[in-house]
């Protein structure tokens, strides 16, 4: 559930736009935090708190008229924020402690395992940040699909194709290259 705000953001960012994705991510983050605060024996975890601050802050900043970011720019901020959250300390410790006996919590193997798992997550988020930076600053990469409030069915199918496969729909890259004079 901790990554649900990010998944929601990714889907809405591609299908509707970054502002809607940020707001949905903030609302889901707030709901997850509230759930943990009111459930007996539960307390909010660093990932949920950081996610709430990240999405809430970005949504408020954007709604307050902060500089408009491109879709890739917003994704970069979200991915970099997630990377910073997981670099703080092994965020998996809080989840793992819910499933093991307290006498194992200080075990070197338990702690090392959580550092390795968190390191793998951090590496994945680092790769996302590098990919976002490449899309922003390397001009010959295929441009992202631009969002339009009046999507046609073919436009939506192109976006769903990109969301699912991570690649432009057939012919889209060639058309974009021709339009940019890069053919």
Strand runs, count? 0
From the N-terminal CA to the C-terminal CA, the straight-line distance is 44 Å
Separate helix tally: 8
What is the total number of structural domains? Answer: 2
Q: Bin the helical content.
A: 55-70%
**What class would the helix/strand composition place it in?**
mainly alpha
Largest sheet: none
Give average pLDDT, whole number.
76
The coarse overall form would be flat
Radius of gyration equals: 19 Å
SS strand fraction: under 5%
Helix-strand topology string: HHHHHHHH
Indicate the low-confidence ranges by residue numbers.
150-183
How would you describe this structure to a colleague?
It is built from eight helices and no strands. By secondary structure, the chain is an all-alpha fold. It folds into two domains: 135 residues, no CATH class; 36 residues, no CATH class. The C terminus is likely disordered.
State the main characteristics.
mainly alpha, 183 residues
Produce the secondary structure layout.
Elements: H1 4-15, H2 18-38, H3 46-63, H4 71-87, H5 92-96, H6 108-137, H7 153-165, H8 172-179
Helix pairs in contact: 1-2, 1-7, 2-3, 3-4, 4-6
